[in-house]
Structure to design on (63 residues):
């Protein structure tokens, strides 16, 4: 059984999610996607990583 996250772990995870979301907003700006189609792939990878991380975090959270 996974140990519960500490407040420091939770704060660190929240900071990582915030940073990733800010980066995602920059990547999916319509002008950038038109000029750089590869950015759509990068944005998709960020979304998948966030979903995986959040799902993992939810599974480890104490109920």
């Amino acid at each position: 059984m996974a140990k519960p996250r500490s407040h420091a772990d939770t704060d660190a995870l929240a900071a990582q999610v915030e940073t990733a979301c800010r980066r995602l907003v920059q990547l999916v700006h319509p002008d950038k996607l038109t000029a750089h189609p590869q950015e759509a792939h990068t944005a998709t990878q960020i979304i998948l990583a966030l979903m995986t991380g959040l799902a993992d975090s939810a599974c480890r959270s104490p109920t």
Remarks:
- The CA atoms of residues 1 and 60 lie 8 Å apart.
